[in-house]
Amino acid sequence: MSAADPARTTGPNADAAAGTGGDPLEALRASTRARVALGRAGDALPTARLLELRAAHAAARDAVHSPLDAEDLLGRIGELGVPASHAASAAPSRSEYLRRPDLGRLLADDAALQRGDYDVVLVVADGLSPLAVQTHAVPMLREILARLDGWRVAPVVLASQARVALGDEIATAVGARSVVVLVGERPGMSSTDSLGLYFTYDARRGRRDSERNCLSNVRPPHGTGYAEAATTLAMLMTEARRLGLSGVGLKADPALGAP
């Protein structure tokens, strides 16, 4: 091929194209989990890209329907040196939970949680991705607990078929002023194991979403890291206790420094 051949790849993408079968966009695809430059095959996607899309959709569905291994999680939480108990929402099954979000916000009638006098309760909730909880909850708890010096922390509650607002019910039941809910977020086509952290000060039934602070996409190495999320959460909790509020009126300010 001569230097004047118009098919020759030159410029900054030449090396990337040489190592990817001559496709200079492959380097861009490798730098992000977003679906970019998928190409065309007539008026449709290339077969390889279509199969990748269908596989991602299947993985997202599997993440929603995968069962929570409560026994495994309780054992691993116990290894952190903190007591833990299991509770369920009023949704009797996974299918009912998906059809009736309201039931996922209420404790089951037979829930038995020990009451005390606590500043905060940490709730691990399966949410819409038990996979995220199974993968990230324990290392995330470890980082959070390391930053709660001076807080009276209730035993951890592992909640199944749970929505975020179930944390308010649990906080009331155990006698905790505040709640942090670690919940599996709705899976996406490029993220099936994203964990969210929801903090509510003065937790009680009827709290609105605007009265919570959320840290989302905790899923290293592709999302927020455990230490970074825990440090931001600790800032929010410290400021919430000082100001007496959480939600839209409370912002994490890095200038405050970690507690």
Describe the structure.
With 259 residues, the protein is of the alpha/beta class. It has one domain: 3-Layer(aba) Sandwich (Rossmann fold), CATH 3.40.50. It contains 8 helices and 6 strands, in the order H-H-H-H-E-H-E-H-E-H-E-E-E-H. The chain has a 6-stranded mixed β-sheet with strand order 1-3-2-4-5-6, sandwiched between helices. Helix 6 packs across helix 8. The N terminus is likely disordered.
CATH class: Alpha Beta
Q: Numbering strands along the chain, what is their spatial order in the largest sheet?
A: 1-3-2-4-5-6
Helix/strand order: HHHHEHEHEHEEEH
Q: What's the tally of helices?
A: 8
Number of strands: 6
Count of distinct structural domains: 1
Low-pLDDT residue spans: 1-20
Spatial separation of the terminal alpha carbons = 64 Å
Residue share in β-strands: 15-25%
Enter the CATH topology name.
Rossmann fold
CATH architecture: 3-Layer(aba) Sandwich
CATH superfamily: Ethanolamine ammonia-lyase light chain (EutC)
**Shape descriptor:** globular
Main sheet record: 6 strands, mixed
Percent range for helical residues? Answer: 25-40%
Helix vs. strand class: alpha/beta
Looking at this protein, list some descriptive labels.
single chain; 259 residues; alpha/beta; Rossmann fold; six-stranded mixed β-sheet; 8 helices; 6 strands; 34% helix
